[in-house]
Write a structure and sequence with these properties.
Layout: E1 9-10, E2 13-14, H1 15-25, E3 31-35, H2 39-43, E4 52-56, H3 64-76, E5 82-85, H4 95-102, E6 112-117, E7 120-128, H5 129-138, H6 146-151, E8 155-158
Parallel strand pairs: 3-4, 6-8
Antiparallel strand pairs: 1-2, 5-7, 6-7
Length: about 170
């Protein structure tokens, strides 16, 4: 991308603020924001909201596993049954997609759900507390929870009617 994705801004504003706002708008509180490279610059983009928990992952170079591990470690300190995990590089993430992922059946500690878009896996995912320790222990390198979600047969929730689910890995041409 040429810059940390948490610093990306487009015509609609900061991708970081957008993601946090969507989660808060659906009732996901607090929002745990995991930042790595240039974390202080990204922090300046966040709205000053006391419901956010900021985690700076100093080993961000290790990849997605370090960020997911840091976020789930922070979630362990909360009294919640599950975590909604999403990425900053999903500029078309919307409330409808997140709402579908957390409902219509209540989220439980054993919940494991993954958004799919035209059959392709994506984000957000919902990971119940019962899975956190095993998932953390399975994380390595620049890989997220994909293998764990497949191995444990996460419930696939089709969301392509709500958004594209497309993560943006390259700057606009």
């Amino acid at each position: 991308m040429g810059t940390p994705k948490a610093l990306m801004v487009d015509a609609d504003g900061s991708w970081l603020c957008h993601g946090v706002s969507v989660l808060l708008g659906v009732g996901c509180t607090p929002v745990i924001v995991v930042l790595g490279a240039q974390a202080s610059d990204a922090t300046a983009l966040l709205p000053s909201d006391s419901t956010n928990i900021l985690v700076v992952e100093s080993d961000w170079q290790k990849g997605m596993s370090a960020s997911l591990h840091a976020g789930l470690d922070a979630a362990h300190k909360l009294t919640v049954d599950a975590a909604v995990v999403t990425l900053v590089d999903l500029p078309d993430l919307n409330a409808g997609t997140v709402a579908r992922m957390v409902g219509p059946t209540p989220v439980q500690p054993n919940t494991l759900r993954r958004a799919v878009f035209h059959g392709s896996p994506g984000h957000p995912v919902v990971i119940g507390r019962d899975h956190w320790d095993a998932l953390i222990n399975s994380l390595t390198g620049d890989a997220g929870a994909g293998a764990y979600l497949r191995e444990h047969r996460a419930e696939l929730v089709e969301c392509s009617d709500l958004s594209t689910g497309q993560d943006v890995d390259y700057p606009p041409a």
